[in-house]
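Run log // design_07
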């Protein structure tokens, strides 16, 4: 009787062991697709990152303002002396290449030209008390609204487009503003010489009168 029970127990134990092994095998088979899917997911590459860009070109330096002669730059040391007929609109900007230097952090090659003046340069002219000159005044000689020895101030905001011929981006997309700084000019309006005849004054530029005029006279003895 004990032998039969022992045989049954052994047989039952064997079945349980076989069932456990079979269940483990089934679990392994069921898990394999997940492992394969997971491995496949890790192997998928990300999409394209697009074009890699660097730094836009820049420039360093300043822009100068030239006197009406077109060659003499204004300086901050002494006020420039102006003549009687000089107008604010006769002042111009120096070539950009004389004061600005192209720069690019990526070492890209400058275009030709690499520095170009954009429209809408802002000129600011003021009297010594800070009153801005009107557009009409800027077209007129200083002597029409200032007196001898008066000081006027001028500055300009200069938009510059900076371009390279290599790299990306080739330009910043918007002009870079450069401030010229503030300079002073001194108005010199010398008194014109006159002729005084019989108590009357005549400017040399007016010409001597060819017709008679009322004046003092003395009796001759």
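design_07 sequence
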């Amino acid at each position: 009787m004990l032998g039969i029970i022992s045989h049954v127990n052994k047989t039952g134990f064997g079945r349980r062991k076989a069932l456990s092994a079979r269940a483990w095998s089934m679990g392994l088979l069921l898990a394999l697709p997940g492992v394969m899917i997971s491995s496949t997911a890790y192997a998928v590459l990300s999409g394209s990152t697009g074009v890699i860009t660097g730094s836009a070109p820049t420039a360093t330096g300043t822009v100068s303002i030239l006197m009406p002669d077109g060659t003499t730059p204004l300086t901050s040391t002494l006020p420039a002396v102006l003549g009687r007929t000089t107008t604010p609109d006769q002042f111009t900007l120096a070539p950009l290449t004389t004061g600005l230097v192209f720069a690019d952090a990526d070492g890209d090659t400058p275009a030709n030209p690499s520095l170009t003046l954009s429209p809408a340069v802002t000129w600011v002219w003021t009297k010594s008390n800070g009153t801005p000159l009107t557009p009409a005044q800027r077209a007129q000689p200083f002597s029409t609204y200032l007196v001898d020895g008066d000081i006027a101030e001028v500055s300009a905001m200069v938009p510059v487009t900076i371009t390279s011929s290599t790299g990306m981006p080739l330009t910043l997309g918007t002009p870079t503003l450069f401030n010229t700084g503030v300079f002073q000019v001194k108005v010199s309006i010398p008194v014109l010489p006159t002729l005084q005849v019989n108590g009357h004054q005549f400017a040399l530029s007016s010409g001597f009168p060819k017709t008679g005029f009322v004046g003092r006279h003395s009796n001759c003895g």
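Residues 58-187 form one domain.
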